[in-house]
Amino acid sequence: MGVYLCIASNSVPPSISKRISLKVQFPPMLSISNQLEAAYVGQDVTLECKTEAFPSSINYWTTERGDMIISGDKYEAVAMDNGYKKFMMLKIRKVDKSDFGFYKCVAKNSLGETDGVIKLEGKLFSFYMFLSS
């Protein structure tokens, strides 16, 4: 996909040029750089997911139960568009034990859908860390 410039020249001026925009339709593709994240209870954590699709996809996050996550006091879901690419982030504020588990980022367009799973697990509080602080 992109913009291409075609130039026709036969040694007789003037040369002719034409700008062509090529758009390729394709179902969503998804990548996750960290499929396992860890956080302490009380910490904020951000999960990340990247997608590509054309036509543009509808993107959202779900819990492991399949409930769609809506931004509010607990969660902040952000998607940044850059043409056919989207960067998704899910910020979970003040993590507690009930937040540990699996989160799914989902991308859908008219040609298909895909999803990716990120596991959020708890970090163990080290007694050594407690003594050294």
Task: Explain what this protein looks like in three dimensions.
With 133 residues, the protein is mainly beta. The protein has a single domain, classed as Sandwich (Immunoglobulin-like), CATH 2.60.40. It is 5% helix and 57% strand. The chain is built from one helix and ten strands; from the N terminus they run ββββββββββα. The strands form three sheets. It has a four-stranded antiparallel beta sheet, with no helix packed on it. It has a four-stranded mixed beta sheet with strand order 4-10-9-6, with no helix packed on it. Strands 1-2 form a two-stranded antiparallel sheet. The chain is elongated, with a radius of gyration of 22 Å. Keywords: Disulfide bond, Immunoglobulin domain, Repeat. This is Ig-like domain-containing protein.
Instruction: Please provide the count of β strands.
Output: 10
Rg (C-alpha, Å): 22 Å
Q: Widest sheet: strand order?
A: 3-5-8-7
**Count of individual helical segments:** 1
Uncertain residue ranges = none
Question: How would you state the average pLDDT, rounded?
Answer: 91
| CATH fold naming | Immunoglobulin-like
Order of helices and strands: EEEEEEEEEEH
**Can you tell me the overall shape?**
elongated
Question: What is the CATH architecture assignment?
Answer: Sandwich
Give the helix level as a range of percent.
Answer: under 10%
Task: State the domain count.
Answer: 1
CATH superfamily membership, which one? Immunoglobulins
Derived structural class = mainly beta
Distance between the termini: 54 Å
CATH class division: Mainly Beta
**Main pleated sheet:** 4 strands, antiparallel
Strand content: over 45%
